[in-house]
Amino acid sequence: MIAQDIIIRPIITEKAMRDITQKKYVFEVHKNASKIDIERAVEELFKVKVQKVNTVHVRGQLRRQGRNEGYTRSWKKAYVQLTEKSKPIEFFEGMM
């Protein structure tokens, strides 16, 4: 897989924005991507140095629409911690 296929989108929530000051970023990533794949993709796309990567599988939730019910899609989330000497990711700078 190429880097653009691994990193799907950034997660922009209050909790994720709070952690940006410590250079910790949250991304939705491909379900089959390993931590090493995620680390290489972030370093390639954003030209930064990654210290560590933590991943979480987010399960789909049961939702109802009238008498019909189904599950939302399940996905994978990655918490990426940059090194202290690394520059911050420019994409997130305007959101703080």
Notes on the protein architecture:
The chain is an alpha+beta fold. Helix content is 22%, strand content 36%. It is built from 3 helices and 6 strands; from the N terminus they run αβαβαββββ. The strands form 2 sheets. Strands 1-2-6-3 form a 4-stranded antiparallel beta sheet. Strands 4-5 form a two-stranded antiparallel sheet. The longest helix has 12 residues. The termini are far apart.
List keywords for this structure.
single chain; 96 residues; alpha+beta; four-stranded antiparallel sheet; two-stranded antiparallel ribbon
Describe the structure concisely for a colleague.
Helices cover 22% and strands 36% of the residues. With 96 residues, the protein is an alpha+beta fold.
Straight-line N-to-C gap? 31 Å
Largest sheet, in brief, is: 4 strands, antiparallel
Summarize model confidence as the mean pLDDT: 94
Q: Which segments are poorly predicted (pLDDT under 50) over 5 or more consecutive residues?
A: none
User: In angstroms, what is the radius of gyration?
Assistant: 15 Å
Proportion of residues in extended strands: 35-45%
- Give the strand order of the largest sheet, numbering strands 1, 2, ... along the chain: 1-2-6-3
Spatial shape: globular
Number of strands: 6
What is the H-and-E element order? Answer: HEHEHEEEE
Quickly give the structural class.
Answer: alpha+beta
**What level of helicity do the residues show?**
10-25%
Topology at a glance:
Blueprint: H1 3-6, E1 7-10, H2 14-18, E2 24-29, H3 35-46, E3 50-58, E4 62-65, E5 68-71, E6 75-82
Antiparallel strand pairs: 1-2, 2-6, 3-6, 4-5
